[in-house]
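JOB MANIFEST
job_type = single_chain_structure
chain_count = 1
residues = 82
[input]
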Amino acid sequence: MLFKIISKDNKQVLEAVSSQSMGELQLEQLIMENQRNDNNNGTTQLLNEGIFGEELILLKNQVKVANGKRLDVLALDKMGMA
């Protein structure tokens, strides 16, 4: 389920977003919209800072993990934390 933060009665609360309003591919494009050029070393994919509240570097998306499930996004912050 997807949520958005709204202001209600001078408080920030979560409100469910209808899954019909944005498809999964549209959401992935929104999340991964930023890129940074690294001095001729290629382009680093950055995750949307406005969504995550900090700059995150995308390592890989759709990562298969040990239990057979998939992570939508695997990223590191500036401190190298996943």
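[summary]
The chain has a mean pLDDT of 80.
The chain is about 15% helix and 50% strand.
exit_status = 0
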